[in-house]
Amino acid sequence: MTDATLDAAPAAPASARTGAPAAGAPRPVPFRGGGFQPSGRAWAGPLLFVLLIGIWEWGSASGWITPLTLPRPSAVAAVFGELWASGRLWEHLGPSLGRLAVGSALGLAAGIGVGLMIGLFSLARAGLAPLVAALFPVPKIALLPLFVIWFGIDEASKYALIAFGVFTPTVVATYGGVDNVDRSLIRMGQSFGLSWRSIVLKIVLPGAAPAILSGMRVSLAIAIILLVAAEMLGAEHGVGAFVLTAGSLYDLESLFCGVAILSALGLAVSFLIGRLERRLLDWRG
Asked: InterPro entries annotated for this entry (predicted)?
């Protein structure tokens, strides 16, 4: 190539020489296939909790909050320390955890089983769905005297009350999750010749799992409420019995200590379900 040819050749655009995209050229778009994924802010919850406790302590110390209505958080913490040191904490917390575990396990097992039946079988839906709809709005605490008559005042009535309270919301969440499974996935499985059992295990259950786990959060919160109600009737030990005794003696520090233990129990249950969700639903990305 001669010098004249080189002089006549057009100069390369500046964007080509610098590597920058040319004017009007399409810009690369970052991949957004992950959908809406909330980023973790683990510090926000503890910070808000500490801030509220600090305001509460400051208001109690300055006289803005009277101890006749709200005790100082430091006094509540002192009661908790006494319970821990004396061993009375586990004397009350141990029976409560046992009742919560047994009653919730019974209610969840029955609720998931019945919910799957309603979601998968038309005959079960026709017969059981109206029954569950009729039982759902019934206040479970109002049935405690009836459970005591049926099962006695011992542990059986407490298990039954918690199980029944967990049962109905679990049923609704389970068959709602089955109904919301994408039917095109089921038809795709049928077109590939999958058996009914394989479709249920590989498509329906994974698709319904988010709704089932969300229902478990609600069900277990109800279980804690019913646990306290059950322990207030005929229980010598338990967090509910401890709260009832503190309230009857107008011991606000002990009363709020019991409420704080129940709140911590609710946080622990929510944490465990969150870990279960991350383990079982990692396929969502």
From this structure: MetI-like, MetI-like_sf
Best-predicted range by mean pLDDT (15-19, 182-186, 223-227): 223-227
**What's this model's pTM, rounded to 2 decimal places?**
0.79
Check if the beta carbon of residue 189 is closer than 8 Å to that of residue 200.
no
Give the helix/strand (H/E) hosting 134: helix 122-135
- Taking the C-alpha atoms of residue 172 and residue 131, their distance in angstroms, rounded to an integer, is 11
- Model confidence pLDDT, tens digit, residues 78-104: 999 999 999 899 999 999 999 999 999
Instruction: For residue 222, give both structure tokens.
Output: 């109800």
Q: Please, how many CA atoms are within 13 Å of residue 135, restricted to the half-sphere of its CB? A: 16
Decide if domain 107-284 falls under CATH 1.10.3720.10.
Answer: yes
Residue of 172, 175, 104 whose CA lies nearest to 135: 172
Considering only CA atoms, give the Rg of the chain: 29
